[in-house]
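Give me structure tokens for this 106-residue protein.
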Amino acid sequence: MIQVRPRQILQGQRLFDGLLWVNKKDFSIIRGSGEAVPQIRTLHSENLFPHFTTVREKTAGGFWFPAVTSGDDTLQFRTGPQRMRLTIRYRDYQRFGADSAITFEK
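Here you go.
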């Protein structure tokens, strides 16, 4: 398990703050739990994100891809607290391939 925190918050960028679980055999990330930072609050808008957990599974090709992302958090908006629950399931990963050629005109 590794804790990940941004060294600095950069304007206009969303970064990850949380924990990563790493497979000892191939050093692949198998689970992540944390939140997007910074939580943006301005005079006219709020852009808040819940704490979430993403679990990865090994695909047929031997690669680790997200299988489920879930979150259950209460976001503190100016208008009052808002509970947010989410579940995202990923499936049917397929290899993408394309043929290309570079030609030069004389």
